[in-house]
Structure formats: structure tokens, C-alpha cells
Amino acid sequence: MNFQLxxxxxxxxxxxxxxxxxxxxxxxxxxxxxxxxxxxVDEGMVLSTCNRVEVLTSTRQGADLRGFLRSYFGLGPKxxxxxxxxxxxxxxxxxxxxASSLDSMVVGEPQILGQVKEAYAVARGLGAIHSALDALLSxxxxxxxxxxxxxxxxxxxxxxxxxxxxxxxxxxxxxxxxTVFLLGxxxxxxxxxxxxxxxGAGKIMISNRTHDRxxxxxxAFGGQAVPFxxxxxxxxxxxxxxxxxxxxxxxxxxxHGEALLRVRKNRPVFFIDIAVPxxxxxxxxxLDGLFVYDVDDLQSIAGKxxxxxxxxxxxxxxxxxxxxxxxxxxxxSLEVVPTILxxxxxxxxIRQAExxxxxxxxxxxxxxxxxxxxxxxxxxxxxxxxxxxTTLKSSATRPEAATIHEMIRRIxxxxxxxxxx
Amino acid sequence: xxxxxxxxxxxxxxxGLICALASLWGGRQVLTRITMPTVxxxxxxxxxxxxxxxxxxxxxxxxxxxxxxxxxxxxVVFFFAIYARYKATAPGLALLPVVFLLTASAALRPKPSxxxxxxxxxxQWIFMHIALxxxxxxxxxxxxxxxxxxxxxxRALKSKTTGGFWARLPALATIDEIGYKCLxxxxxxxxxxxxxxxxxxxxxxxxxxxxxxxVLLSIxxxxxxxxxxxxxxxxxxxxxxxxxxxxxxxxxAVVAWAANNLSHTHRFIP
Lengths: 421, 270
Known about the structure:
Chain A is an alpha/beta fold. Chain A contains 15 helices and 10 strands.
């Protein structure tokens, strides 16, 4: 038994290549069914996300996964360089890393685990997964959970927009029923607003020097367009003010901040100022209850979080290495199971045959005598087999395992279980 | 027996306190898995101790022990109530040392002995007076801690130092709400407690009672409390200004408590 994996990800293949290989949800069952019909393939599953397409199998003899992908997707040989292939231990490590989000574009992002779980569920539903892949995937889920709880890899955000959302939540708790005021309607501002709305922000007001653009965006968000020259009249409704105008002088100065606090009865306001030059004067941050973060602040938090994640990722890699070792030794000890079984079977056959023979010679015997013969013959076999079996088990994870394994098979002339391995 | 249960509770609080300190380094898991259950168990034993004391109240002599013990218990109750409502542990943990010290003082200091003071009024009245005031104290204490935590969180947000130790504090709005809710809930208890006390004193000593230092301080505290609530409610004072007010109210409360030993008429022990 062997694990084999082939795939492309965001590092090895450009979007055009990933697009050609991407498998939509409704086509997934068909691909998996075709995969497990390939010669040599025992079990299989397919993971397809926007950043990766991977085929994972457990095989008896080596299977030609590359050939399968080529013929299934009709790929020419020039795409070959984009694929990576892993086997055995390396495949196990890769699966663990993917599930733990160490191989993701944004390391630590939490979606990938769910995607792996879905791919697994689909393959399992089709009967394409049983013992070996099942063991591998359940372990991968446990490893991912361990990485998540033992490292802080998923705990910090690394994009400006998500840092802004996190800060907003640090101030307001929940963003529900909070009003966002977009001042300037650039792409960045729109993205940040989208993040805020996704986290539950209730209402949005938009003001822009070109009023038409504000109206357009307000329609897209289901918000309210505010004339640019009246922005200060509306600003006090907003809990979060996101500024990105091209104004050369600050739009919000200290006196505006003081007025805001007065009207709002000191309820806090969060200014996210992504404009350069800044739209909110730095003195505003000195007023109680007003919090101003400019683009540098956000970037430095995002940068710190990225560094933090790198450190956590290193710790996570160590956990994965340990887990791969553990899994590999478990798989190895499973490898000797068929040999042990056929060894026991072999001896049992001999025992039965000998008992049948002697019974004919002894004629009538009492049940006690029969039980004694039974017990004695069993005891002899168990004692004889004890050392070979314990040796097999204990050597399973050591380098000489293959030699011992082979020797025992030869000594006892066990050929039956060979194909299991 | 109540002393015994109180000491059991004290040990559990102590253990919880140590684990809470450990969790500063060890992370959240220590907190939820060890500190919370330990303190919760301590609360149960503490409750048993209080009930037994109350049942012995026919021989009960009001000393400083019972109010201290009761206040510590109420603080733990507030701790869990706030945790249940806001999932916020920070205010309760900040008060855990206070809980420990109050319980220790009640459990370990020798009980004053001496002839019981003949009470002119029923012990139930005194008990009610104390219980109401203590609920008010507990609420005020939580409000005070919340306003301190608010200041810390505000500083952290303003100085743009994210992460680290203070990252575990609840959101600013949550801390604010805890502080405000505690004020609002504590106010009627404090007021009723003072009224109950006044009625007691009126029947016992007449009007000269109100010239007493402790009583005056209590009334001062109540006034600050009222102003605090009013500014918060009317002008939305929070942050620095609310913290100053809460500190003032808290200081008045502490002095009023301490004045028990200076007062001529309002003393637990004659």
C-alpha cells in the first residue's frame, strides 16, 4: 500500500493552468469515480479550490496519475512542469500541510480545512475512500486542529481591510447596527466597506467629490449617498468613518472631532484613514473616544501579523513533522498485520490437520481428553509463534523491518498475503 | 461549621487566583479549564458558609466578618454573571485578588469575643441593610474596575499597540456596557440599603446619628454615585472622566467602610 498525490497549486501553476484543471462541484463525483477505476488505484479523492487542484490516492502498485490527468483533462506535455508529485511519507506530509493551511496562499486561512473535509465527504460518499485514505484524512483533520490550537497561526489578520475590521470589533464589539460612512469612493475604500458590511455593519453612507460615483456605489451597497459639501452634517450618524479622498488638507480636524463628540454624547468614532495625504488630522486621535488609524498604522499591524504568522508557521511545521513520523510508524505497523494473520492461519491449518489425523488413531476418547489435546496443541502453536510475531511487530518501525518481514514469509512459506503490501 | 466552609472557599479562591496568574503566561485554556471551575466551586462552599451563618443568626453578632464575606461572595456572583452575559473574564479576574483578601480577612481573622450587643431592632433589618449595601458595593467595585479597564483598552487602541497582553481585554464597547450596567443595577440596591440603614438608625439613635462621620461619608458616596450615573446617562461620560468619577466614588466607599472603626455610633462592635 502506498499514498500517491499529484497536483498544482498557486505556487507551481499560474491561474490559467489552474483554471483548466479546476473541477466544479457538480463534476467532482464523476472525476472521483473515473479516478478510482484507474489501474492500480485503490482509493482516491480530488480536491479542487481556487488555489489548488490535487488528486490523492492510495495505490497497490504505482498508478499513473499524471497519465490520468493528461487524458482526463486533455493536457499537452508542456504543462507537466507545473505538477508536483508526492509519494508515501512525502504525500502524508503534504496532506497534513494542506489541511493545516501551511500550504495556503494566505498561510493560516481557515477555509482550506473545510474544503478538504468536503472533498473527503464527496469521495467517501461515492465509496472511493476506505481504510488507508480514511486513516490518513482523519489524522490530517486532527493534525490541523492541533496546529490551530497549539499555534497562533490563524489568530491574526494580514490584510489592511481585515485589520481595519478587527480594530472596529475591538472598539465596538459587534458591528451590528453600526453605521459606516465612506468618504471618497475608491477601490480600497470599497473593499474595506465590503469587509465591514460582511461582519454585520448595519448602514452605509457614501460621499464623494463626484456625486454620481457616490450614488452608484450607494445603490450597489443599498446605502445612502450624501452630498460632499454637507458631509459634516451627516458625519455624526456614523460610528465608523472611512476616508480616502484626494483632499490636500485634512477633512476632519480637531474642531470637527469635538463637535462630533458633543453631538454623539461621547459615543466613540473609529476613523479609518487610507488617504495619502491624510484626511484626518492626527490631533483628532488625541480626543477621548475618537480613534484614528491611518494607512501606515494599518500596514504596520498587518506587517507585524505577517511576521507573527511566519514564526507560528515554523512551529506548525515542527508539529507536522512529528505527526508525519507518528503516522508513518502507525502505517508501518499496520503493514505487518497481513503477515501475522497468514502466519496464524498457516499454523492453525497444520494444527487442525494433525488433530484430525490423531483422532482417527485414538478411536473413542472422552470430552476431557479431547479438550486436553485441543489445549495442548494451541499452547504449542502460540508459544512457537510468540517470538516471530513480537519480532515482526517490534521491528515494524525499524529499518531492518523489510528484511525480517521477508525472512519470516520465506521461512514459513507464506505467499498468500503478499499482494497486500 | 461556617468557618470551615469559608476556609475551603478561601483555598479554592487562592488556587483560582494562582491559576489566573498562570494563565497570563499559559493562555486562555488554563483560565477556562481550571480557574473558572475552581472559583465556581469556591463560590458554592462560600454560599454554604453564608447560609449556615444566616441560620445561626439568632446568636448572630454583627461583626465586620459577615459583610466582608458577603461582599466577596457577591463579587464572585457578579464575576460569573458578567462572564455568562458578555463572555468577559477580565473585570472578574482583576477583582479576584480583592475577593481573596476579603474572604481571607473574614475567614482567618479572630472573631471578636465579648458580650453581644443588645439589639433594639430585629437582626433581619440589619441583615437586609448590609446585604443591600454590599450588592451596591459589589456593583460599584465592578463599575470601577471596568472604567480602569476601559482606560487601559482606550490607551492601547490610541497608541496602536495591538497584540500582546492587552489584546485579551474585551472590546471597548463591551467594557463600557459592563461598567454602565453595573452602575445602573447597583444604584437601587445602594439607595435602598442606605434607606434601610437610616430607618434603623432613626429608631435607635434619633437624629444625632446623621452627624456621624461614617454616615456622612456614605451619603457623600451615594451623591457621587448619583452624579456618576447622571453624567453617564445624560452626557455619555466615559473613558477618562468616567474613570475619575468612579475612582472618586470608590474612594468614598472605601473610606466609608474604613470609617466603621472611627465612627461612634455606626460600629459593628460596640
